[in-house]
Write a structure and sequence with these properties.
This protein is α/β, with parallel strands linked by helices. It has 4 helices and 6 strands. The strands form 2 sheets. The chain has a 3-stranded parallel beta sheet with strand order 2-1-3, with helices on both faces. The termini are far apart.
Length: 140
């Protein structure tokens, strides 16, 4: 009903999803890249999402390297990114939180004209699985 200018009703209820990743790199020795607060950061963000923004547990996915079932490996992070963005549409609320090592590496695709560097994050298995570049994230 209604003519030009009337608001259209949504086709579906907006989706709310959150992903939080906390990597302390517990497999690394102290003083050689191990971090201390990233899992705590993730816990804090979950509290904020639930208490302030009314997210439900079923809407929150988490990865952390102190639980073998939730390991933030490269494969698990990429799968979680796909879960977060799958079926996303206008009006949906998607939240991503990452606490862990990040960096830059030489750009190999030629898309970083200004810096010549890709941004990247370090999954828990970076030594065997490799880094996750901004190009990989944008391709999902």
């Amino acid at each position: 009903t209604g003519g030009s200018g009337s608001p259209s009703s949504p086709m579906r209820t907006p989706i709310r999803k959150a992903l939080t990743i906390g990597i302390n790199y517990l497999s690394l020795p102290y003083g050689r890249g191990r971090l201390a607060g990233c899992i705590n950061d993730s816990d804090t963000m979950i509290t904020v999402m639930k208490d302030t923004f009314d997210f439900r547990d079923s809407q929150i996915h988490r990865l952390r390297d102190d639980d073998q079932k939730l390991m933030p490996t490269k494969a698990n992070i990429l799968a979680s990114f796909r879960w977060l963005t799958q079926g996303a549409a206008e009006g949906d609320e998607l939240f991503l939180h990452y606490s862990g090592h990040g960096g830059t590496i030489d750009d190999t695709s030629g898309d970083e004209k200004l810096t010549g560097k890709d941004n990247c994050i370090y999954p828990s298995d970076f030594d065997a699985g490799g880094l996750i570049t901004d190009d990989e994230m944008h391709s999902l």
